[in-house]
Design goal:
six-stranded antiparallel beta sheet, four-stranded antiparallel beta sheet, 3% helix, mainly beta, 2 helices, globular, disordered C terminus
Length: 380
């Protein structure tokens, strides 16, 4: 397979992003949602920040609290020698069965004419302001529907990991619409058009104790109210997606089916990228799937960083025409950088294998119920 990593990789590093305040420092700029807007490539970066001044021997945890109707960053501090404090994972701080994130994330807009050199806004596009966002907002995806871009993102708080929705028509003004999936859920991608008059999402609920982790499908008449959830595909023992998996980029429509680039995790390679091809008319039908990943952590910037051995995508676009189409994948590397890899669409499709056994739940899209009271479209 012909994989062209951009020679300029990493395209965006923490040093390229201005902190949201003088008290913070940027530690990661990664996992960017992607959309073509006019003749430009727009990225919505996940920007992770930590407090700038931390005395030796302390751990500082930034969170958002609301005071007098305003959201403000506050810092909770721990002595590193505190009994019961667990800081073995750089992404989290665990104390007395409470889990905090070591950084606070917001979403920042970047734009480019050539898809390589990006101008990054100095201020956040979306910042955690709600009670269900107090530990940050992360890993966005952008779905363009006519003249509106819908942004779904992971919202993290003491109440768990949920999925929220926002929208914009100009990338200047943004409207938050609240939680669309309660905890614990993440890795949501929304198909860019209605299918049989319904919107469709892929999502990944958590499993604790019982059951095998699955990517699920959900259906909605208006993007806000989701129902009729059914499992689509799960982990595969002994394969590249044996430990964990989740949807990555917004599905790309091809003449052969919906191409979904997703991530899988295994003990030997870490976070990798592969793909699944879904039926155009009924995406609950799996036509083919990667038996091996096509992008694995190989370079220094993918293997070493804030959290190593990770390639993780939240956005990709197809460029070109017919058989010359190229899938341009923007991906987070080592939970620190934003990078790009180009792969011929034909090569990705040729690498997929039809499943020997289908375990999908059949869905009659004509019989998907509309949730009661959900007929009104979102207000823009």
């Amino acid at each position: 397979m012909r994989i062209e990593r951009a020679q300029m990789n990493p395209l965006i590093s923490p040093i390229h992003v201005k902190p949201s305040s003088s008290e913070m420092r940027v530690v990661s700029a990664f996992n960017a949602a992607t959309v073509m807007w006019g003749d430009e490539t727009f990225l919505l970066l996940r920007v992770a920040e930590m407090p700038k001044e931390v005395p030796e021997g302390e751990i500082a945890v930034p969170i958002v609290e609301r005071h007098d109707g305003e959201a403000r960053i506050t810092v909770r501090r721990f002595n590193v020698n505190t009994p019961g404090l667990d800081i073995t994972d750089p992404r989290a701080v665990i104390y007395q069965d409470e889990i905090y994130l070591s950084s606070l994330s917001h979403l920042r807009l970047a734009r480019s004419k050539d898809g390589f050199r990006f101008h990054i806004d100095d201020v956040p596009a979306l910042f955690p302001t709600e009670y269900f966002e107090e530990y940050g907002i992360e890993d966005p995806r952008m779905t363009k529907v006519e003249d509106t871009v819908y942004i779904n993102y992971t919202a993290v708080s003491r109440y768990g990991i949920s999925v929220a929705l926002a929208s914009t028509t100009d990338f200047i003004h943004y409207q938050k619409h609240g939680v669309i999936l309660p905890p614990e859920n993440k890795n949501v991608v929304i198909f860019p058009e209605r299918i049989h008059d319904e919107y469709i999402m892929l999502h990944r609920p958590a499993t604790t104790g019982l059951g095998n982790q699955q990517i699920w499908m959900g259906y909605s008449p208006d993007l806000m109210h989701w129902g009729h959830h059914v499992p689509l595909m799960g982990k595969r023992p002994g394969m590249w997606d044996s430990t964990r998996l989740g949807a990555g980029a917004v599905p790309i429509k091809t003449e052969y089916g919906w191409l979904e680039i997703y991530h899988g995790v295994n003990p030997d390679q870490g976070y990798c990228l592969g793909a699944v091809l879904l039926d155009l008319d009924d995406p609950s039908k799996i036509l083919a799937r990667s038996n091996v990943p096509f992008l694995i952590p190989e370079t220094e910037y993918e293997r070493t960083g804030f959290y190593g051995n990770v390639v993780f995508t939240c956005g990709a676009v197809a460029t070109g025409v017919e058989k010359d189409q190229v899938v341009r994948i923007y991906y987070g590397a080592a939970d620190e950088y934003t990078c790009r890899a180009d792969i011929a669409l034909e090569d990705i499709l040729d690498s997929l294998h039809a499943p020997a056994i289908s375990v999908r739940v059949p869905v009659d899209l004509n019989q998907v119920p509309i949730p009661e009271g959900a007929s009104c479209p979102l207000q823009k």
